[in-house]
Backbone:
C-alpha cells in the first residue's frame, strides 16, 4: 500500500515505522495472533524478509525527496499476546543496518517508551498505551519531525 499512502503529494518529512506486526506470530489467518509456542505458529515476517522489505521500502520512500526519519519499534514485554518479549530488539537491529546504510536517522521511540513503560502501557504485557502514553510518544515523534521540517 505504500504507493497509495504516499499518493501524488509532495512530502517534506516522512517519519515511518514497520515492525510490531511483522514480529507477531500467526497461524493460517495473518489478521489473528497465535501463541508463539503453538504447533504451526510462525512469525508473520521472518527477520531476513523484514530486512529485505525495509530495504525496498526505503528505496521507494527516498524517491519522494522527503527528509526520512525511521522510528524504531516500541517494546514487546513479557505476556504480550502473539509476540515474544524482546523480539523488537532483533527487528530494530535489522532496521538499524538498513537505515545506517541508507543514511536515515532513527527516532529511538523504543528507548523513549522504555523510560516510562510502566506508566504508559495500557496494561502489563500489552504493546498498546494509555491515552497519556500515546501523548508522551506523540510528543517525541512531533519533536523529531519538527527538527527535520524546513525552516521558513
Residues:
Amino acid at each position: 500500500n505504500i504507493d497509495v499512502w504516499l499518493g501524488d503529494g509532495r512530502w517534506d518529512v516522512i517519519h515511518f515505522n514497520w515492525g510490531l506486526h511483522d514480529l507477531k506470530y500467526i497461524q493460517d489467518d495473518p489478521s489473528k495472533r497465535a501463541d508463539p509456542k503453538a504447533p504451526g505458529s510462525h512469525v508473520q515476517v521472518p527477520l531476513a524478509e523484514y530486512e529485505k522489505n525495509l530495504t525496498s521500502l526505503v528505496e521507494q520512500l527516498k524517491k519522494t525527496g522527503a527528509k526520512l526519519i525511521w522510528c524504531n519499534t516500541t517494546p514487546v514485554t513479557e505476556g504480550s499476546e502473539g509476540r515474544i518479549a524482546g523480539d523488537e530488539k532483533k527487528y530494530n537491529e535489522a532496521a538499524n543496518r538498513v537505515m545506517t546504510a541508507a543514511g536515515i536517522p532513527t527516532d529511538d521511540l523504543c528507548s523513549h517508551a522504555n523510560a516510562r513503560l510502566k506508566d504508559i502501557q495500557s496494561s502489563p504485557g500489552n504493546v498498546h498505551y494509555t491515552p497519556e502514553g500515546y501523548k508522551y510518544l506523540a510528543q517525541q515523534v512531533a519533536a523529531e519531525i519538527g527538527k527535520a521540517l524546513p525552516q521558513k
